[in-house]
Design goal:
Layout: E1 2-3, E2 6-7, H1 15-20, H2 29-33, H3 36-46, E3 61-64, H4 71-79, H5 120-133, E4 141-146, H6 153-165, E5 170-176, H7 188-194, E6 198-203, H8 207-215, E7 223-228
Parallel strand pairs: 3-4, 4-5, 5-7, 6-7
Antiparallel strand pairs: 1-2
Helix pairs in contact: 3-4, 3-8, 5-6
């Protein structure tokens, strides 16, 4: 397919190769690979946004809150034609737009600058509220957070607000690689359900299960999908 002059025929099978072009942040390798399949299913089959519609006010919004270790995110954006994959080899260098944390001003397709954990979900709540205020009911807001981010109190405030507010356009994807310090009795999904969310836990490597969870109806409620992957320190 061709997007904004960039030709790509990349698929899921190419993402590891694209990620291998980015070096210098190996310590965050697990943070990146944990998100790879969920990101691919979102961008390949769910999100209504392309390079041509990245500025369309009625596009879907994807916010990467788990901004450390963004290699998988960059690989997926390159595979989908948001920027030339040749940029991947300069990852993290002085004059590269692809930093160790994404910058929305520099990275085509990025909605927020991220890396400070605990910010993404509150920003997604604000984005959904802004769309509601504008009368835009079609765009969906997705935010990807890590399970350890739920140690941050700002996320719990956002969860507690979004459920009663009925933010149906809001979707939270939690990548669970067992790295949280505190956890939650009954599991992560139960935390969202207690606040009035629709929530489901799935295998974070199973594309069919991810797609079904991402597209399940949840009228009048925000949606949370917990994607379990292999433990970070396994």
């Amino acid at each position: 397919m061709t997007h904004t002059g960039i030709t790509t025929t990349r698929g899921r099978q190419d993402l590891n190769t694209l990620m291998a072009l980015m070096t210098g942040d190996e310590k965050h390798g697990p943070a990146a690979t944990s998100t790879l399949d969920a990101l691919w299913v979102l961008y390949d089959r769910v999100l209504r946004v392309t390079p041509e519609t990245a500025d369309d006010p009625d596009r879907d919004r994807f916010l990467l809150s788990k901004g450390h270790g963004p290699m998988a995110y960059y690989a997926v954006l390159a595979a989908k034609g948001f920027f030339d994959e040749e940029l991947l080899t300069g990852f993290g260098s002085y004059d590269s737009p692809l930093g160790h944390h994404p910058d929305r001003v520099l990275v085509p397709g990025a909605e927020i600058g991220s890396g400070s954990l605990g910010h993404g979900l509150p920003l997604a709540v604000g984005t959904a509220l802004g769309l509601r205020a504008q009368g835009r009911t079609e765009p969906r807001v997705w935010v990807l957070i890590g399970d350890a981010e739920l140690d941050e109190g700002s996320n719990h405030e956002a969860i507690a607000y979004a459920g009663p507010a009925g933010l149906q356009q809001l979707h939270t994807l939690v990548i669970d690689n067992a790295s949280a310090t505190y956890g939650w009795p009954g599991g992560i999904a139960s935390r969202f359900e207690a606040a009035g969310w629709s929530a489901e836990t799935v295998d974070g490597r199973d594309h069919k299960a991810l797609y079904a969870a991402f597209t399940a109806p949840h009228p009048g409620r925000p949606r949370a999908v917990v994607a379990r992957v292999e433990p970070k320190n396994a």
